[in-house]
Amino acid sequence: MLWVDKYRPKTLDQVIVHQEIAENLKKLVTEQDCPHLLFYGPSGSGKKTLIMALLRQIFGTSAEKVKVENRTWKIDAGSRTIDLELTTLSSTNHVELSPSDVGFQDRYIVQEIIKEMAKNRPIDTKGKKGYKVLVLNEVDKLSREAQHSLRRTMEKYSASCRLILCCNSSSKVTEAIRSRCLNVRINAPKEEQIVKVLEFIGKKEGLQLPPGFAARIADKSNRSLRRAILSFETCRVQQYPFSSNQAIPPMDWEEYVSEICSDIMREQSPKRLFQVRGKLYELLINCIPPEIILKKLLSELLKKLDEELKHEVCHWAAYYEHRMRMGQKAIFHLEAFLAKFMSIYKAFLIATFG
Amino acid sequence: MAPLLQSSQPWVEKYRPKQVKDVAHQDEVVRVLTNTLETANCPHMLFYGPPGTGKTTTALAIAHQLYGPELYKSRVLELNASDDRGINVVRTKIKDFAAVAVGSGQRQGVYPCPPYKIIILDEADSMTEDAQNALRRTMETYSKVTRFFFICNYISRIIEPLASRCAKFRFKQLPEEIMSNRILHICNEEGLTVDTEALSTLSSVSQGDLRRAITYLQGAARLFGSSISSKDLISVSGAIPREVTEAIYAACKSGDFDLANKEVNYVIAEGYPVSQMLAQLFEVVVGVDDISDEQKARICKSLATADKCLVDGADEYLQLLDVVSNTMRALCNMPQEFSYDI
């Protein structure tokens, strides 16, 4: 079992990083009742962990016995029926799903499936009517229509069903939904907190940590706890006992991106652009999301550029990322950004050095 | 089990006005509808206005008051965006419902029970244009036995032919004192203590949206117990603390790109929503005195561009960085045009 999963806090009491939020959540559910919740925050900050711990707090250990189901839903949309396949994770009291998986047909998921689930009310052993919890992942990727459909569903079935929504950026969730939920912001853990967690894991695993080693991992992790723990484990596999100057292996795709950067800094020509295209394809085939590639490219470039060029490059990065979102093929826009950068950089070189 | 149900209900639903006359601040609508209750006659209606001003509440209240709980189910069809409302539904479900005639008006106790049915189309602005077009003739043909209530946020999304068939009512944004009254009423019922500072914070963070104000209040009450301060409300509402916005602005002013980049990274890592950040940055920029109008205009333009991009789903970090870079160039009087862009 990976350490990331092994040391995931199971209850709200075990949470190390977001203790304050955990306390608040505990207070929230003491009356066996909670409002709709919207968790948002950067990836690797612990949203999911907190949600699972919260479910356990509400329903006890039964929330942990989950089964994975791959169901096909037949939806009657007037003249035709649509088959939708969706994977759900469910226990007796909660169901977890990512409606955005079905793409543009997510509206039907929201309208039909959620409604159907919301209508069935669980009854506990004492004959009390309880409520069901629906955990929806990646609500920021839901289409506009689907989000609209969610609004009324949330109100109508509020007595029998609680929604827990989880997303990276709450900007992409419509106001109407945000105003119906209690918003919980989960910030990325601070570096000291990451260090604390790493030291905790080190102690549990019985490892000797040289001073400053955990701090270096935390520094490299970009405030993502998941990443920190993963690279900690990689280090453990590579070399143990740790030496204090042991290199922390960077992600190989990141190295690849910085290679692209130095390529285009060295030579600006159509031929070089053609070479770099192959590398971009390589990254895309390996399922690195294009916006992440673009962001990493930008951050690598910003490290090397003059002050006056930075404004220009960051503007074009934003511009092409927006284009990429509107368009279909990521490669065009990534390449356009690189070409733009080359032209700007070349002009800059000519202006400065003649 | 009734008491348990009561407590688990959101306050927004619990304190939804049950009668038309209880709807706050929308005097014209209330006057017209009270008239309707007496004469039992009403036109097609179109309610529009910003969220949380009582549109749905009014529509539901009038329907309940006209028919009472018994007849409500058979006389009122409520459709909203969570139901499928494509053109097929308009052609079949709505038409079928509209076509059925009802018995002549017989007063049942206190309820007037007029001889027509009501179809409430909530969130009508998310209906497709085709579906709206299909409604036109239906509305006229069955106008004897059916009244339509349209509810929407943006009247511009309702096609003209539909809008012209209805009596239009704009729902006004709620002013601060009305909102405070309502909030105080709820606080009394729920046994909460809220001071005046918290009240004014609540109305400023909710921007005239009563539903949002009540949701925040309930959230804060759940999290922080029965006495609520303005700080608690800010943390529940997801507003960004002043210091963070100020730090971004100061970084822009310093003209140091790397410092600004660091601040942007901080905002993203803390998980603050960038749309909110833009809104608050806008307030800061408009409020400061020591920069020229042209500089302000330049900054606002970049804010607007970024906002549109965010709506399209662009990346938050890149957009904020672009705004910050634009702001920095405006504040430090760097040229707005790029020098190496051919």
What does this protein structure show overall?
The complex is a heterodimer of chains A (354) and B (342). Chain A has 354 residues and is α/β, with parallel strands linked by helices. Chain A folds into 3 domains: 3-185, P-loop containing nucleotide triphosphate hydrolases (Rossmann fold, 3-Layer(aba) Sandwich), CATH 3.40.50.300; 191-238; 252-353, Up-down Bundle (Zinc Finger, Delta Prime, domain 3). Chain A contains 14 helices and 7 strands. Chain A has helices spanning 3-6, 19-28, 47-59, 106-119, 144-156, 175-178, 191-205, 213-220, 225-238, 252-266, 270-285, 290-304, 307-326, 330-353; strands at 37-40, 67-77, 80-90, 94-97, 132-137, 161-167, 182-185. Chain A has a 7-stranded mixed β-sheet, sandwiched between helices. The model of chain A has no long low-confidence stretch (mean pLDDT 84). By secondary structure, chain B is α/β, with parallel strands linked by helices. In chain B, 58% of the residues lie in helices and 8% in strands. Chain B has helices at residues 2-8, 11-14, 27-39, 55-75, 87-99, 129-141, 160-163, 176-190, 196-206, 210-224, 230-237, 242-254, 257-270, 274-287, 293-311, 316-331; strands at residues 45-48, 76-79, 117-121, 146-152, 167-170, 193-194, 227-228. A 5-stranded parallel β-sheet of chain B has the order 2-3-4-1-5. Chain B has a two-stranded parallel ribbon with strand order 6-7. In chain B, helix 5 (87-99) links the parallel strand 2 (76-79) and strand 3. In chain B, helix 5 packs parallel to helix 6 (129-141). The model of chain B is unreliable at 1-6 (pLDDT under 50). Chains A and B meet through helix 2, helix 4, helix 5, helix 6 and strand 7 of A and helix 1, helix 5, helix 10, helix 13 and helix 14 of B.
